[in-house]
Amino acid sequence: MTGAERIAAFAAQTFVEGVPEEVLDAAHLHLLDALGVGIASSTVADNADWAGAAPAGSASLLSGGTAEAGAAAMINGALIHALEYDDTHIGSVVHGSAVAAPVALAVAQLAGASGCDLIRAYIVAWEVAIRIGLAAPGAFQAHGFQVTSVGGAIGAAAAAAQVLGLDAARAVSAIGIAGGQASGTLAFLADGAMSKALNPGWAARTGIDAVRLARAGMTGPASVLDSAFGVMNTFAGGGKMLGPQLATLGQEWLIPQAAFKLYPCCHYIHPFLEAIESLMCKGVTAQNFTSLNAFVPPPAAPLVCEPWARRQTPVSGYDGKWGLAYCMALMLVDGRVDVASFDTTPRAEVIEVARKMTWTPMRDHGFPERFAARIELETGQGRISVEVTQVRGAPDRPVETADVRDKFAANAGLRYRPEEVAELALEILEIGSAADTGRLSNLLCA
What we know:
alpha+beta; 2-methylcitrate dehydratase PrpD; CATH 3.30.1330.120; 2 domains; 6 strands; globular
């Protein structure tokens, strides 16, 4: 079987046989987190008008109202990803929910499907994207592509094909079409453009459009992943591990390993923010240190350290989400890094603190299986150092379910009243047993 055939077979099997209970529980919790992040994102001034780019239709928008299904998936994916607050599978560096949630919601509404189909589509899209990332860890990024958008388009097509009722041959074609149209570069880093947020949304839309085209008779290459000009060679420079990764689909479930994010900025920065919080507990303030050196895993450095002057003085609040120095300075100055931290243009008092910081490549970092950090800081009383070996929220440093629900309540509370937040949370956490998505749609569109 080719990679596309193996993926299509897994998706079909999942819709027939279901998934283990612990996988279902994890999926519901991650879906809750993702939709909450998207709702919060829709209240940010820079993002508020994106829905205006979507033509009319009946699929729910996380900003309220409805749009055409493919466009709704695109906008919702962009909203979920825009805050850099969405979950990540660390080993594959895949932001799965930013693709899986919008495609599952849109196609379930388009097909009039059950909540069970919605959550299974969500799981399929996640699992496929993870495997593609794990087939070439770090290689997509090294070639300038975001694996979320490349692998996400293929996962989205596999999921949408099942909800929309494609047979095996047309499901393979849909995956082939989606793989041929997959995209998503890291070019935004050059000037802090917001278009990175669109990468997973475009992947979700690509999956839906690919299924529509395959259903209409267009064929796509079954070897889209494996051939000389296929996804793995073109985007990642090879993919010898693709076969072994796809072989575990339906046997080993990886969504429960996905990490929740606790700060709305690049995930590579999170362990450094934890380290800063630890230093603050020891009495360090923005005023009483003279210099700070961050030891950074070299594969993460191009996103959060280079060029260092830009990461100290970002050009916008959004650009600041990738500024390691700027984010650490935010924590020192404000004692927090949250959604509001990036709403304004970069602040002079934060930049002043960031300019006291330098970075050095870290050895023995374990990236990408671990997101680690080490900081050495000089004060008038001497040197202090602190190390974080794995980011909080990862499977080996898990957060509690209550933490995720509190995060959802805070995010959804930016638009809904408390009683509406509670009602929406309950509906999402029980969507897998819902006969249809009507109630969820009504709550989101309110």
